[in-house]
Amino acid sequence: MPEHPPKSDRFGEIEQHGIDRVPDCERHGKARDLFVVWAASNTIYIYVVVGGALPLLGLNIVQGLAAAVLGNLFWALVGLLAASGAASGTPGSIVMRAMFGVRANSVNLFVSVWIIAVAYDAINLSIGALASFALIEQCGLHVGIAAKLAVVIITAAVTLTISVYGHGTIEKLSGPFTIVLAAGFAVLAVFVVEHANFANPLAHAAVRAAPQGAGLWAAMLAGVTIVASGPLSWSTSGDYARYLPASTPAASIALWTGLGGFLPSVALNFVGMLAGTAVDMNDPQTAFKMIVPAWFYPGFLLLIAASSVTNNVLNAYSSGLSLQAMGVRTGRTTTVLWDGAIAVALTIYALVISNFLETLSAILSLSVSLLGPSLAIFGADLLIRRNRYDGDGLLDETSASPFWFDGGVRWAGVIAQSLGTAAALLCVNTSVLVGPVATLLGGADLSTVVGPLTGAGIYALMVLARPHRVRLPVPGTPTPHSPPPAR
Is residue 7 a part of any domain in this protein? Predict the structure, then answer.
């Protein structure tokens, strides 16, 4: 294996690979390199906002911290899925063909990966733009429509430039990004702790009294669901491990990926939760003005804008790969730019024309019902196959592919995903939909548990009932499949 990155994956060089398999001769790096990639992308303001929602549910500090830890445990599943990248040498959107079949996977990617990734792009871009607008106003300047458009476009341009340069550049910049963002949020945490109301944590929450009994369980489960929506949106974690040597231990990949997401997420959830004990977090950006000193507030706004960029870098990169895997026959650079243009259009529509952002956020609150079963099915398949994936076979889109199954459809995956999502929707409790099971249980939202368990359980039963359909590549044996040009 090369000691240094090949030219196709160097910092400052536009990445040459798309959904094609990364050759063994170009594999490099260590599993620990993944930590900063995920830490940079998840040391973000939106997790502070999520933490600030926990007191609004009526949870005290201990209960809120428990909800944050439990919800973020899904990062362990994200870490497990990342191991498939090194095993196959392909992105996660291609590995999913093993679960759904070559044709059905295109539909799966469109519904459960691409749409949600672009939606999160728009939300992050909107959050960063709003912070930038406030920063400009802090400088005494008026922010008109032209200025708003310019801010959105410039922010998107910075994000997309890094995403277009690709894996090597993302990995190299992740270390400095992590250090700068962690330092900024650490300063914010100091001011938050100084103002936190430990004696009466619900003083600013819109609840008359702390929930008890069934009400407390309902509030806890709602908090877990809100927190879990973060890690559950990363089904494509293998995208960032596919350059690692195939011999890299799966446990190491899972550990460093999971920790990179888990540690900053829990820490920032806790900061937001403490802030919620001191101010009303229904409008967090304005509320923080009451916590931080005047000299730090511009830096706080800059921190919000910067963190929205680092999160969107990975979003845009993976959504571009997903678009390729869906069958769009063009290069990765083009698909990333297309996705960025769509996100910019949604952001401009949300910020300038309507309150579409609120609608989009409400729709995404239901995404856990779709994403939970999808990630669990992926995890079940990885365990059944013992993380042995034929990268070249996954890229074969003909009827001779070992992942063609029944006319390009693997019914085990399709049925498991459908029933897992249906089960989750029956148990969901959001502002958009309250399922009948949640109603019977007094508002308890079990979707983050029922959906994944149903999806993974049905998939495992259907697959193990026909074990001859699980084709495992034999290490060291050449494969007859050759990948299509997909750069």
Answer: no
- At 342-381, the pLDDT tens digits run 999 988 887 776 555 455 556 666 788 899 999 999 999 9
In whole angstroms, give the CA distance from residue 100 to residue 167: 26
Q: Contact 137/143 with Cβ under 8 angstroms?
A: yes
Both tokens assigned to 109: 């990617």
| Residue owning tokens 């191991």 | 83
> What's the pLDDT tens digit per position in 431-453?
778 899 999 988 888 999 999 99
C-alpha 76/C-alpha 256 separation (Å) is 10
Domain contains 15: no
The residue behind tokens 């992050």 is 124
Q: What does the chain come to in residues? A: 487
**The tokens of 64 are what?**
């809120």
Helix, strand or coil for residue 102? helix
Residue 3 in any domain: the answer is no
Q: How many domains does the chain have?
A: 1
The enclosing domain of 246 has a CATH number of: 1.10.4160.10
CA-based radius of gyration for the chain? 22
What DSSP line would sit under 122-149, residue for residue?
HHHHHHHHHHHHHHHHHTT----HHHHH
DSSP class of 23: P
Q: What is the pLDDT of residues 250-298, one digit of tens each?
A: 999 999 999 999 999 999 999 999 998 888 877 777 888 889 999 999 9
Query: In this structure, is residue 477 part of a structural domain?
Result: no
The three-point CA angle 265-432-375 to 5° equals 45
